[in-house]
Amino acid sequence: MKPAFISRKDNSLVGRWWWTVDKWSLVSLFVLIGIGLVMSFAASPPVAHRLKLDTFFFVKRHIIMIFPTLALIFSISLLTPLQIRRLSVVGYIAGVILIILTILHGVEIKGSRRWISIAGNSIQPSEFIKPFFAVVSAWMICEKVKNPNFPGLIISFSLLSILVSILMMQPDLGMTVVVVATWVTQLFLSGIPMLWVGATFGIGTLFLLLAYFFFPHVTKRIDQFLYPAAGDAKHELYQITQSLEAFKSGGFFGRGPGEGIVKKHVPDAHADFVFSVTGEEFGLIICLIIVGLFCFIVVRSLIRLMEKSNLFTVLAACGLIFQFGFQTFVNMGSTLNLIPTKGMTMPFISYGGSSMLALGIGIGMILSLTRTNHSTLEE
Fold first, then answer.
1. 21: which strand partners?
2. What pLDDT score was predicted for residue 7?
3. Can you tell me the distance from the alpha carbon of 126 to that of 115, in angstroms, rounded to the nearest whole number?
4. Contacting residues for 368 by C-beta, under 8 A, at least 6 apart
5. Does residue 254 lie within any of the structural domains?
């Protein structure tokens, strides 16, 4: 990976980027995006046919979203940590405003208001605010550690409380769990007394119990997971049942490209359940390779962080890496019925414009924060 067209003496912005960015993670990301494109061709045509749309409607939209996603990854990975902090403050404020507008004017789907139309395009603001929150929260916690008199922890908790409040007004329990878990992870890594971390876990547990008793859709999903033999659960768990059958049918090597059956019956075969289509058509071996790619990106990024001494860089990047890994785990776990279903996409493989763009922002930040020889830019 030493191209002749970029010299080590090249001091341009792109030249410095090339020699400091993690190229192995970049390659892994490109492979995931390529797999996502293949799976879009494999999984989405039957869904489009059921909805009486053009056969390649979702494929075309998926391809269109790849280009701005790559642009976001590249442009954000060029930024310094200081620039990422500034971008995140603006992004957090804009995200809060958009979520509030979504609650007031968004489209209600299955009892939740998570989508809003802007310039004719539907977006999910809660997806975009995740990476911005991780960075701003890390910044405030870091300032508290550096200066005990600075109310960084209070500010960070206030930012979390605002975000959790508006997310639960939609409601969106899954996204709420992600941001709370991100904050707790950063607290733990910052060296804050364990009493704070323990108290946070206790509050989080209480919150989940309250969500179970007071939010019907949460109660329904958890009951379906715990009591799958119930009559209503059998009907509601149709997608899960089909998903598990798809993995059984695929075996080690799969039925072959285009030979899958589950995509013809599962409504979200191109999105939340694309992993089951992969398992049926390409088999366990390819699924394990995909899991390996995700694990490689996470572990590789964490290893590069071990070279960093700046607390903000470590906390922000760990929060972003956690979000990436957690989303992957939730998608795969839901598909395999290891956890209750939650509508999270598989990063860069599932169909979903808002998710892909938001992931582009998060990955761009990770690549920036894990660049080598970046120490002079970390303050």
1. none
2. 67
3. 9
4. 76, 77, 78, 79, 80, 81, 84
5. no
Q: Across-strand partners of 117?
A: 122
Residue 162 binned pLDDT confidence (cut-offs 50, 70, 90): very high
Residue 107, helix vs strand vs coil: strand
Average pLDDT, rounded, for the chain: 87
Residue 127 lies in a domain: yes
- Cα–Cα distance, 267 to 264 (Å, whole number): 8
Q: In total, how many domains does the chain have?
A: 1
Extended beta strands in 124-163, E state: none
- Note the pLDDT of residue 266: 79
Q: Residue type for 148, please?
A: P
Length of the chain: 379
Q: What's the rounded Cα separation, in Å, for the pair 247 and 250? A: 5
Q: Give me the mean pLDDT over the 223-250 stretch.
A: 72
Q: What is the DSSP letter of 6?
A: S
CA-angle at 323, arms to 321 and 329, nearest 5°: 105
> CB neighbours of 188 closer than 8 A, spacing ≥ 6?
197
DSSP state of 267: T
Between 108-112, 145-149, 190-194, 232-236, the lowest mean confidence (pLDDT) is in 232-236
146 found inside a domain: yes
Identify the domain containing residue 104 by its residue range: 13-216+286-377
Given this model, what pLDDT does residue 234 score? 55
Task: Evaluate whether residue 159 is within a structural domain.
Answer: yes
**Most confident region among 122-131, 190-199, 334-343 by mean pLDDT:** 122-131
Question: How far is CA 22 from each of CA 61, 70, 300, 301, 337, rounded to the nearest angstrom?
Answer: 29, 15, 9, 8, 34
